[in-house]
Design goal:
Length: about 220
């Protein structure tokens, strides 16, 4: 098993920097290559009775921070405050954005093929996504993204909606994939740690291929 990139660990939680192209949790098609299984194996090596509980997920193609609880009480505490968690992502987008920043409020719906799209039905899931331009290149834009809601494929759908899909995101309209991955990284999290009842801010190292991609565009 490849060594886990553990960003933070205490008696109640463990936070991992997930690589791209790994599921957060198992599916019927792939039961073994997923982060939940690897973290579970890690804690059971310490004590066979240890358990972990999932708090949130990242898409398979997205890298970055994922938080797990080590007990049910911590899971409940985290889930109760998760809506207030500050979540920052880095994304490399196709094209050059004109606006320096914007907040998108979109209603999302999912079809039978698990494709998420923007719906005109205002009763559908509301996704709130804020972005700020960090750097513009000739044909791409590096942005910082904060999500105020945690809907499936929220960032990817939102960037497609403004006609600037994430580099490497063929599912949601990208025309290029020069770095052989989705150029989306969950870079930081700020939340209430159930171990201390105080805010904690964690940051994930940016993958080398992601940094190389940014350097290549500059």
């Amino acid at each position: 098993m490849k060594k886990l990139d553990i960003v933070y660990e205490d008696k109640n939680i463990i936070v991992i920097n997930k690589p791209s192209n790994m599921l957060t949790i198992a599916t019927t098609k792939d039961k073994y290559n997923n982060l939940y299984r690897k973290v579970s194996e890690y804690v059971k090596k310490q004590n066979k009775n240890n358990k972990i509980f999932i708090i949130h997920r990242l898409d398979k193609e997205t890298s970055g921070l994922v938080v797990f609880a080590k007990n049910r009480d911590s899971k409940i505490k985290l889930q109760n405050v998760w809506k207030d968690t500050k979540r920052e992502y880095l994304a490399l987008l196709e094209g050059t954005l004109k606006e320096n920043s914007n907040t998108l409020r979109l209603n999302l719906e999912e079809d039978d093929n698990h494709y998420v799209y923007v719906s005109k039905d205002k009763t559908k899931d509301l996704a709130i996504t804020h972005y700020e331009v960090l750097q513009r290149f000739d044909h791409k834009t590096l942005v910082s993204i904060n999500i105020l809601t945690g809907k499936k494929n929220q960032i990817r759908v939102s960037m497609r909606y403004i006609h600037h899909p994430i580099v490497g995101d063929k599912k949601y309209g990208a025309k290029t994939n020069p770095y052989r991955r989705l150029m989306l990284h969950a870079a930081s999290l700020e939340f209430i740690n159930p171990s201390t009842n105080k805010k904690i801010k964690l940051e994930a190292d940016i993958p080398k291929v992601f940094l190389k991609g940014i350097e290549n565009e500059g």
